[in-house]
Amino acid sequence: MTRHLIYLSIMAAFTACGDGGKAPVQQDTVIAATGGPDTLNRIVLIPGGSFSMGADDSTGMPDEYPKHTVRVDSFWMDEHEVTNREFAAFVAATGYVTTAEKPISKEELMASLPPGSPEPDSSMLAAGALVFTPPHHRVPLNDVSQWWSFIAGASWRHPEGPGSDIKGREDHPVTQVSYQDAQAYAQWAGKRLPTEAEWEYAARGGLSNQLYPWGSEALTTGVAKANTWNGHFPYDTTTTDGFTATAPVKSYRPNGYQLYDMAGNVWEWVSDLYDVNYYAQVGNGAANPAGPAKGYDPEDPGQQKHVIRGGSYMCSDEYCRGYRVSARMKTTPESGLANLGFRCVRSVANHGQ
């Protein structure tokens, strides 16, 4: 989801109106302080190994097939998503200004639109980000403009736009951060973003052939397992899992690797470019795959996009189901979204440097 796609969706809407498994690995989990400036977030050692990447059954989307074997080396991963508190420390230390806090030029936006598109209103050029603005009734689930709005002034400091802030949400995952913002934080912290293969391997938590980080038990069975949408998306939700938007990190039980929120809460950036056909191209036995050299999204072929993983508080069985461990989503690198954050990793060879 990007500003240019919202613009296209809104244009289309107005045009239409005008036209009438296996048990978790038993091991001693190793947790350490990061050793970098963001000492609040502990990192967990993820032991290297091979696993089957991709959808485990018929519930997957086409880009989750074919299932294929991948090997990843050991790495360290943040035990939870980067929080507002941690991101604030980064900004205070560096003076960093996020993508959402910068206006864009008309030329930049026009370059991302199909030839012949009308010029955007000046309001689309202001600094800002996409905010979840739910309707109060059923809407077509193929029209994202029904629940996403570009709000001038929205940013990580003001996730819902002017008048909102993060007071009381210091331990919630930071949102409204672009791929570039996540990379900048990771570099400052002496880390990097995970590859898609590392992310899925870690999310599985040592389990094989399971749908979710906790196994295959349904979300609605037993205690709340993740922060997802409860009700009819996007107009009706409940606090069955304790929250209606983002939740503080570590609000739910961790997976087998002692990682929190690998399903739900917020989507997470990974380093790979998105190619709908990549799984068919990479084949079996790839070691530490880093994704395609060039991305391809048939729904938006003019844009290079990055993969995001894990689902969010907006995912439900009737919309997206992104909390499955194999589920993939994509967005452009400049995107700031109210349900998108990140966590970092560090290669074992670089730990302590």
TrEMBL record:
<dbReference type="Pfam" id="PF03781">
    <property type="entry name" value="FGE-sulfatase"/>
</dbReference>
<dbReference type="InterPro" id="IPR051043">
    <property type="entry name" value="Sulfatase_Mod_Factor_Kinase"/>
</dbReference>
<feature type="domain" description="Sulfatase-modifying factor enzyme-like">
    <location>
        <begin position="41"/>
        <end position="346"/>
    </location>
</feature>
<dbReference type="GO" id="GO:0120147">
    <property type="term" value="F:formylglycine-generating oxidase activity"/>
</dbReference>
<dbReference type="InterPro" id="IPR005532">
    <property type="entry name" value="SUMF_dom"/>
</dbReference>
<dbReference type="InterPro" id="IPR042095">
    <property type="entry name" value="SUMF_sf"/>
</dbReference>
<protein>
    <submittedName>
        <fullName>Formylglycine-generating enzyme family protein</fullName>
    </submittedName>
</protein>
<dbReference type="InterPro" id="IPR016187">
    <property type="entry name" value="CTDL_fold"/>
</dbReference>
